[in-house]
Structure formats: structure tokens, C-alpha cells
Amino acid sequence: MSQSSAARRFASALPRLDQFRRIVIKVGSSLLVDRAQGRVKREWLASLARDIAALHAKGADVLVVSSGSIALGRTVLGLPDGNLKLEDSQAAAAVGQIALARIWAETLADLSITAGQILVTFGDTEQRRRYLNARATIGRLLDLRAVPVINENDTVATSEIRYGDNDRLAARVATMASADLLILLSDVQGLYTAPPNENPDAALIPVVPRVTAEIEAMAGGAASHLSRGGMRTKIEAAKIATTGGAHMLIADGRVKHPVARISEGAPCTWFLTGSSPVTARKKWIAGSLEPRGALHLDAGAERAILSGASLLPAGVTRVEGNFARGDCVLMRNVQGGEIGRGLVAYDAGEAVLIAGRNSHDIEELLGEPGRAALIHRDDMVVAGDRLG
Questions:
Q1: pLDDT tens-digit map of 141-188
Q2: For a tag on the chain, would you pick the N or C end, based on fewer CB atoms within 10 A?
Q3: How far apart are alpha carbons 174 and 242 in whole angstroms?
Q4: What is the pTM of this model?
Q5: Is residue 254 within 8 Å of 187, Cβ to Cβ?
């Protein structure tokens, strides 16, 4: 089946926004910041905030990946148009991040929603220890019904390690947060068969069942001098998101209430995944990570995790190996057989100290508060999990 015929077949059964439980919305600089005026487009942002509040009120977790700190800061500092030197970008970000966080906090507070700012760098999603820290912070904010507002930490990122665009950052965040939908609000309606500003016959593609070489060839360049991204980075984001178990869509963000308009049938492009965030994550843990040690469990802990519970320290009888927090470790039963594996929340030395003890004793044993579980149920794969 060709890509076009597959797209037509899927177009009649596209997902609905109210089907998703955790949604990441990416907002680009050119949508958020009026460069000529040097200020945020507050009326537009207020309309997006009302869209976010509507999703929030229906029970969905919502995260925002927001560009705009450099665009805001460069205006305040009087920096010139065009590409900035790295140190000027970092200085602009330092000024702009304060303004950006305040604006998001105030706009969401008007709708009785609490915002939490998270600044991330490449290493926060690529190094497992930092990945788990960021994931835990995001998870706790969502548990408390706050909306995390996330941006690349441009004040410390360098040209060698920075994402270079917030499309791929948003996809990494979606995967890290186990989101099931990523919305990229853009200055185009979606993916076209050719760059629409160059080819009047270009047609919008409503659905991409799978990112193929044909789809990648359709990607064009950046459309705005305020944005570091372009259609090519959006296709890269789609590959990251769908591999991680999240659907993704590209939609026109230049209109007011851009998310609500998606629900009303506004033109956009859906990128579909055949997996789920949990399944994709478990596949990654099961097959991509080399175990660095093992935790031996008593019979009660074995029954608990096979029933879907997290692994608590009380159920661990012995710790084996020299692992660090975030490493993959095996879980072994009383007979020594492997019953699963997962990402451990403590270093080996700490695990030895708390093994066999109640979670309430962790602070006394380690001298500081810690996580209740040695391996959280979302960070493990056990015998019987369906990964196909």
C-alpha cells in the first residue's frame, strides 16, 4: 500500500483530542513573540491558555514546551536581528527566561492553573540519572495538577550540546513524560507534499501512518527567522515521538484558540504510532539497556511486582553489582531466576543500606529524603508484560 492510499484510509479514523490523557503542546517563538513590538502576543496566549484549561478541566495532563526566551531577551537587551553569538544568546536567554516564566505563570493563574518552570539541557534527557530526576519532577507536578512549562536551558547550553530547536526537545519531553500526544503549533498547517510557499500545487497531508523516506524527503527549511526549527526538525520530532509511543500532530498556531480549532476539524497533519508510551518504554528497558546489577527479592515482593506494583526496599533481600541511579538492573526471585528488569532509583551503595527496610526509614538511613520505590512500576518490565 502506498503512503498516499494509507493516508486516505487512516484519515477517516483519526484520533480525537479528548482521547488523550497526557498532552505536550509546543509553542514556537514566532507564535508567542511579536518581534517588531518586542513583546509577547498576550491576546493570542490568553486564547491558548483557555484551550489548555479546557483540556485540563477534562482531566488531561498538559505540558507546554515554550520557546521565546531568547526572542524576548534580545529585545530587552537591544541586541541586533539575525544570528547571535553564543554568549549573546545565553545573555538574552537569561533575561528572557524570567519574563517568559512570569508571563506563562500569570496567564495560567488567571484560569486558576498553577504553572511550574523546568529548564532542561540535552543531558537531562540523554543521561539516565538526570532523565529520571527530570521525569520525577514532571510527574510530581502533574500529580499536583500543575502545568509544567519547559524550555531548553539556553543560558548554559552550548552549540555542541544544544537541541537547536524545540521541536525535538518537545518530542524528547513527550517521551520522558510518557505523553500519548504531542502537538506542534507551527506557522504552517501541517506537512505538505512540497513547500507551499514555493509550490502552489502543494497539498496538505492529513495523516502520516509511518515516517518513511518519502515523508522525510518532503521536509523543507525554516519558515521564520525567529525559529531555529523547520519542517525537517518536525519530521525528526515525529520519529522520536512515535517511536516513544506518542501520536504527534502539526497544526497552524497563528490563529486564536489553535488547540480548540483542531477539535473542530481545522486542517493539520497527524503522525500516528502503533505503540503506547508504556509499551515503548518497556521495550526500551527490556531490549536496549545492559543490566549493571541485580536485586534479589523475597516471595512477597515477587508477587507484588508481578501484580503490577513498584518494587519497595522492604522486599529486597540482597543487592548485587556496582550500579548507579538510573542504570538497568535485573530483579531475581528466591530461586535466582530473572523475573524482570528496570531502572533503579538508587546507587548500589544506597540500595544496600535500605534493602529490607521500610520506605519510611529511608531518610533516617541515608540522611535525606528519598523515593519510596527502588524501581517504580513505570520503569520496569516484568515477566508477562506484552510488548508486541
A1: 999 999 999 987 766 655 443 544 688 889 989 988 999 999 999 988
A2: C
A3: 10
A4: 0.79
A5: yes
